[in-house]
Request: fold
Amino acid sequence: MSRLRVGVIGCGYWGPNLIRNFVGCPSTDLVAVCDASPARLAAAAGACGGARPTSSVDELLGVPLDAVAIATPVSTHFALAARCLEAGLHVLIEKPMAANAREAQALVDLAEGHRRVLMVDHTYLYGNPVRRIKECVEAGDLGELYYVDSIRINLGLFQADTNVVWDLAPHDLSIVDHVLGREARSISAWGCAHADPEVEDMAYVNVDYDDRTMVNFHVNWLSPVKVRRMIFAGSRRSLIFNELDTSEPIKIYDRGIDLGGDLEGRRKRLVSYRSGDVRSPHIEPGEALQAVVAHFAECVREGKTPLSDGRMGLRVVRLLESATRSMRAQGGRVVLANGAAADGNARARTSRPDELHPGRPGRPDREERGHALLR
Reply:
């Protein structure tokens, strides 16, 4: 295989970015685009030269392809990805991978059964700032990691078919999953709905990874200011990732506490405060999405497992699903076993799986309408 023959399904918000990067990638050849909207399809086809425009998945599957990238609403991810995997194509799919854990697990099983690459576009993992964070944590530069505090807020794009957790939290959940390299033990979430009584537009999510590592996420569509910040606090140093600071996205603080010997037995410890230097390591510029498409092509060509493979996508979806159940139970903590909700051991009542519509993450059950691309 010289160049990977790729088709892109969905030419709305994110699809044009994928199209641009597939066109610019030396390992890929964009040969088809697909969208149900004639206007979007015409614009996409015009932007990528000789790619064939198609208005349905059936038409797309008639084009000789090696792989597809899916950038459609999450409610359509399972049906589209399943069709493509069953047709023998490798699949790159936007986050979140599916509308619930059952669908995500089915896609993982399909990909493994057909021996095809299934990769989720958790774009941040392929950016140089997150790569540097991973290196710092693994090298022990921060010491023992105590907590992660994440804020992703803005006066946001309200969506009718998904809540703020499913919209914003996948970014930071995937970053923490990648950096920590281990699965969560439990999750609890609190959310409020203001614009639409059925859709939470602000939420706080707390994830427990072990006895000494706690992670908090604040996601919000109502904030008058835009904040994109993560704090990784360790016993030696702390790191702050501010993605809005393009010149110095990472700062490492040599500030914290030092623990001395016991005072009056074991009930008191001598605590001293440390205030050292702040440094900003150089981060090479580069577009993360270009690294995504290049990595996808490499995994297909060489039979490698993607950094953000289907199993990672499944872990993120399980956390999103459990967070929504916790919100429905007024913050009831959901205990997780190997990344999946252990309903029998839950410390508080959580919603039944059938209370959440499988095609609309975070929303009560309503009649599903077939997507135009699937008709």
Remarks:
- The longest helix spans residues 310-328.
